[in-house]
Write a structure and sequence with these properties.
5-stranded parallel beta sheet; 3 domains; 661 residues; Heat Shock Protein 90; alpha/beta; Rossmann fold; 7-stranded mixed beta sheet
């Protein structure tokens, strides 16, 4: 902490450095009577007054405290010279003047009263003098002739110790002189004593005024000189800055010359590095494009093939009795097909052409389901020495996501964690709520917001810094022969996290383990209740349905399902055929495949049909995601969208919902 004078200089520099320079920089410009800054220095008055209060505050407090003690101690003199009137004198001292001094002391601790301290202190000096004047009035002659000496002490106190400014001190001094003259008149003071007392009293007052004038003048001059000093310091600082700018400019010129020389040496090397970088980027882009096309094409074909595996068991189960031994076999076939369809969905996710339907889910439920799954039991059987620890936060917030992809992401992370422990170790799964009030830097920049964090960590071999930057590239894997892994698992994790609007952070050290933190945006929506199992009676119908699909197997499967449900099903192989069929015939509802080649797609087919049959009901089916073409068809009036392969419950619900709409 700076001492008072240093604080004054610091504040002086801060206040006055912004004041404009004046050509008459050596003149102080004070009013000779009031000592206020005038003319071009008038702007210094307010900062000077604030500085004066701050600089003298401690001295004033000490002086007021000592003044209280001195004024009170003179009560002993009252007891000696005024034995019969001492109680009145004490009343004046201890009930009138001393409390006033202490009240002024208290005012110095109230910042909002600092601007009024000068008039308050002036009033205090006048009150102190009034107290002595009252004692002169009550004291008997000739004792009262000598009490004027106390007024001289008040002058000394007011003109010097409490730092009254000249005008305020002079005002209170002359008030005391006038009060004494009134008291002398009331007490019939003899002429000689009056002349003598006035001589000393007025002389002391004038001397105090001169001292106070000189003190204030000196203080203002010191403040002014500090102001000039700060201006000169600013000039020096500006000169230094100009010099530094010139040095910096010359330095930049030299550096530019050096860089030009260095650039000539490094041009060939930089050009070669740029060529290699561009080649790597091109190869990466080509690789990703090839992977995307391959994944999309294979996924589309597999969806068509899987339709038989998923859909035919549904049809056969309708005709089997409840106690048939074949029911369990058919259910296994159906479940296997659905798992294969989930893998197809992963491939579509990788190619960015498919995304499972999102709904409100709770990550803790996803973890519980996985830990009770056959896949996890098989993993534990293969790695019996690896321990699993869980730390799942209660009242975890929900997220909006695709349960299939979330489960696949969790399974891939846990599989990798178990495999990272070559023989034994620990895998930990944790969840927690978190709110980031500002972006956080990690493996990637994580935006502020409310998140549910899924953490999967292991104590295994860890990942090198070089590999961390590459692990999400397709087909990049460090797994050895005999261990699982296609090189797509981490890519699918990254893709799923991004599809959910999330972020991923990685902390790893070779030989110590790896921690994955996945930040999923939280939602305050509640998990919806499980859908009730439908009955065939609820979804049966007798309406006519036109199936439009370019794949014969898809037409056959859809038609068989519809007939099992009681509908009259007809099928055509293209959009053009559907438009032509409906020229002179009718169908209560259409099942439109979105992607049909060659020829028009489902959206264009529906657009042409509604021109001739406004309000024609239809549902959309596709092996891909809900694309812009699907949404365009729905804007034209089409109903629900369902994903292939067909299942009996999906197509039955969608048809009945649209027909009842």
């Amino acid at each position: 902490m700076l001492p008072p004078m240093n604080r004054q200089k610091t504040k002086m520099t801060t206040v006055s450095s912004n004041l404009p320079l004046n050509r008459d920089s050596g003149a102080m410009h004070l009013n000779w009577f009031s000592l206020r800054f005038t003319g071009p220095r008038a702007m210094l008055e307010e900062p000077f007054l604030r500085d004066h209060v701050i600089r003298t505050l401690l001295h004033v407090r000490i002086a007021l405290l000592l003044g209280t003690l001195m004024y009170g101690l003179f009560g002993m003199l009252d007891a000696l010279v005024l034995p019969l009137h001492k109680h009145i004198a004490w009343l004046i001292r201890y009930a009138f003047v001393c409390p006033a001094i202490l009240a002024t002391l208290a005012a110095t601790y109230i910042p909002r009263l600092h601007r009024y301290l000068q008039p308050i202190k002036s009033l205090l000096i006048a009150l102190g003098g009034l107290g002595i004047v009252l004692m002169i009035i009550i004291a008997p002659a000739p004792v009262n002739y000598y009490y004027y000496a106390g007024l001289i002490l008040v002058f000394i106190f007011g003109y010097s110790f409490i730092y009254l400014r000249f005008l305020w001190a002079s005002l209170s001094g002359w008030i005391i002189v006038i009060l004494y003259e009134v008291a002398a008149f009331l007490t019939d003071t003899p002429v000689m004593e009056l002349i003598s007392n006035n001589f000393f009293l007025i002389s002391a007052n004038i001397a105090g005024m001169l001292v106070c004038y000189a003190t204030e003048y000196s203080g203002r001059r010191n403040y002014f000189l500090l102001h000039l000093l700060s201006q000169e310091q600013r000039k020096i600082q500006e000169a230094n800055e100009q010099l530094e700018l010139r040095v910096a400019e010359r330095t930049r010129e030299l550096e530019l010359s050096n860089r030009q020389l260095t650039q000539e040496i490094n041009e060939h090397r930089m050009a070669e590095q740029e060529r290699q970088h561009l080649e790597a980027q091109l190869k990466q882009a080509e690789k990703m494009e090839t992977i995307g096309k391959l994944a999309a094409g294979v996924a589309h074909d597999l969806n068509n093939i899987l339709s038989g595996v998923v859909s035919y068991p549904d049809i056969l189960l309708l005709d089997l009795p409840e106690n048939s031994p074949l029911r369990e076999i058919l259910l296994i076939i159906k479940q296997s097909g659905e798992k294969a369809a989930a893998i197809v969905q992963d491939m579509l996710t990788l190619s960015r052409q498919g995304m499972a339907e999102k709904k409100v889910v709770n990550i803790n439920k996803t973890i519980d389901d996985y830990l009770n799954s056959p896949e996890y039991r098989q993993l534990r059987a293969n790695r019996p020495l690896v321990r699993l620890e869980t730390d799942l936060q209660e009242e975890l917030l929900n997220i909006k996501g695709a349960p299939i992809h979330l489960a696949k992401t969790l399974m891939n992370l846990v599989n990798n964690a178990f495999e990272a422990n070559l023989v034994e170790g620990t895998v930990r799964i944790a969840t927690r709520n978190s709110y980031l009030d500002q972006p956080r830097e990690g493996y990637e920049r994580i935006n502020e917001g409310e998140y549910v964090i899924l953490t999967v960590s292991d104590t295994g071999i860890g990942i090198s810094a070089e590999d961390v930057s590459k692990i999400f590239e397709p087909f990049y894997t460090k797994k050895k022969l005999g261990r699982s892994g296609t090189g797509l698992g981490m890519t699918l994790i990254w893709s799923a996290v991004k599809d959910h609007g999330g972020f991923l952070d990685i902390r790893s050290a070779e030989g110590r383990g790896t921690t994955f933190d996945i930040y999923f945006p939280a939602t305050r929506q509640e998990v919806s209740a499980k859908e009730s199992l439908f009955t065939l009676e609820d979804c049966r119908g007798t309406e006519s349905v036109l199936v439009v699909d370019d794949i014969p197997e898809q037409r056959d499967i859809a038609s068989m399902m519809l007939r099992k449900l009681g509908y009259t099903a007809l099928a055509v192989a293209s959009g053009e055929a559907a438009v032509e069929y409906l020229q002179d015939k009718k169908a209560d509802i259409l099942v439109l495949d979105m992607i049909m080649a060659p020829g028009i797609d489902g959206c264009e087919t529906y657009n042409r049909i509604v021109k001739n049959h406004p309000g024609q009901k239809a549902i959309i089916a596709s092996g891909y995601s809900e694309s812009e073409r699907v949404m365009e068809a729905q804007r034209l009036g089409a109903g629900e969208y369902i994903k292939k392969p067909y299942t009996l419950d999906k197509i039955a619900r969608a048809l009945r919902t649209e027909l009842n709409r």
